[in-house]
Hints:
Ribonuclease iii, N-terminal Endonuclease Domain, Chain A, 2 domains, 11 helices
Amino acid sequence: MKVLEESIGYTFKDKELLKKALTHTSYANENNIESNEKLEFLGDSILEFISSKYIYGKYTKLKEGEMTKVRAAVVCEKSLHKIALMHNFSDFLYLGKSERVSGGSTRPTILADSVEAVIAAMYLDGGLEPVEKFIIENLKDDIEIATKHVGDKDYKTVLQEKLQENGEVKIEYEIIKETGPDHDKTFVAEVKCNGEILDMGEGKSKKEAQMEAAKKALEKLK
């Protein structure tokens, strides 16, 4: 745990709080202890508040809708997973036997959730100041990049405009496949134009799968 504390730049007074933040439900159920789920809930709110405060204070020219888009781009599983990898969270997770065997220590959802839980644990142990430092240090580059692309259109919008250049067409997205457990699902989406399949995309959410399908369809059209 000392290695993790050095990496995140914070030393816990209550080591048990850090352990709880890294305790997955699979391990908690096997050992009849509390998991990190409640800490995840609190950490999610803290993360949103701190990132909102930072974006509001630093990027004063952004409109409310643009700030919302920037925050959504960085307060997400992808960014949190990247933070977990950066600090080697997988080495410190408490996972149940079956979860560990099935690769739980590298699963993006589990790693992202553990980051939220550690943020909450840090807040409860040392207040808002160290948490703010940790969040901003780890997200400021992604926030900066997101502000550069805040006006960009998403793939679904670009595809729609491209397909409707010569008149109205019917564009449909359909989820054709779902795999994995409830906490770590993968979706496959199909995009059609006037009933004709253009392409398919995969993602960790329905929206992400649809966006990937639109992106691939655009690449094919180009």
